Amino acid sequence: MMRYLLSLSLLLLTLLPLSAAAEERNARLHTQCEQGNMRACTELGFYLYKEEPYDYEQAYALFSKACAAQEMTACHNLGSMYYQGEGVSQDLKKAHKLFTLACRHDDADSCHNLGFLAINEDQPRQAEKFWQKACRANKSDSCYNLAHLYTQENRPDKAQPYYQKACDLGDADGCNRLQTP
User: pLDDT in tens for each of the 181 residues of the chain?
Assistant: First the structure.
């Protein structure tokens, strides 16, 4: 029992500095955001969106502010909120609009997500276009998805280079799908 209490105490002690560090980080980002640093607004919004305790309302406000100032990661994150229905009502049209804006500005994650939206709408050529763009930006998941699309279409010669690129970028599934001579 004593060993358990000691372990629990040590665990709690290690969590306290992280909480203090997170509070300090958030305060620093808040100050930078208030000074007009939209990247800081986006980063703070991300922590509020993904770390407990979640504050979707504040994350939404920060992403909206930064997206309006053309911070494309914020537009992507806002699109993700609409896509997932986290903190807002799910709205795939708004998600699509935000992902499209960010993808046009070379946000690979947004291009990747547009590929999924296209597949869900049974538009494989659109998905191909978006995943090609994201793959060119070294988004390994998009390279793999593109290869998988070509495999499903029985186009192995077209699939292999994308499995290879996915593998080269560290995607284990891409490596597993490579054909050995």
Answer: 433 333 333 333 344 444 788 889 999 999 999 999 999 999 999 999 998 888 999 999 999 999 999 999 999 999 999 999 999 999 999 999 999 999 999 999 999 999 999 999 999 999 999 999 999 999 999 999 999 999 999 999 999 999 999 999 999 999 999 864 4
Count Cβ neighbours within 10 Å for each residue of 65-89 and write b for 16 or more, e otherwise: bbbeeebbbbbbbbbbbbbeeebbe
pTM over 0.85: no
Q: What is the DSSP letter of 88?
A: S
Q: Report d(CA 40, CA 17) in Å as an integer.
A: 22
Q: Which pair of structure tokens corresponds to residue 145?
A: 């998805």
